[in-house]
Amino acid sequence: PLHNYLEPLSVLDIQQYLVPDKVLNKYVMGLDIVQPDSHSSCCFTKGYYRYAVGTGSVLQQNKHEKLDTAFKNYLEMKKVDSESSECLKDLQLRYFSPREVANLMYFPAGFKFPPDTTLNQCYKTLGNSVNVLIVTTLIKYLLS
Asked: Is pLDDT above 80 for 85?
C-alpha cells in the first residue's frame, strides 16, 4: 500500500502540500485521489504540483472522512454555489511531498535535493526521471 512510501509530516508540512481552494473549485472532478491504503497511483509527471489534472495523484490525508460522502455533498452544494469546495476541505487533499514521490520511484533513502531547490524544481526533476528499481532490474536482465 502507499502508506509504506509516505513520510511522517507535521501539521505545518501538510499545510504546505494541501491542494489550494482554487484548484479544488476548478479541477476536483479531474483529480486522481488516492488514500494511504491504496495500492496504486497515477504516474507523476514534470507538471505535478503546477498543473492539476493528469500529472499525478493527490492523497486524501484525512482517512476518517468518507470520499464518496464528501463528493455527494460537493455535488449538491455545487448546484447552489459554484465555489463549493468547502465541503471537500475535511478530506485534506494534498500533493505527495517530493520525498514521497522519490520513495515511490525507489530513490535511495539518502537521496536529497540541494537546499536551494524549489518545490517546482523537485517535482519537475522527479517527473522527468525513471523508477530506479525498474531500471536496475532491466539492466541486470540485459547484462545476464
From this structure: no
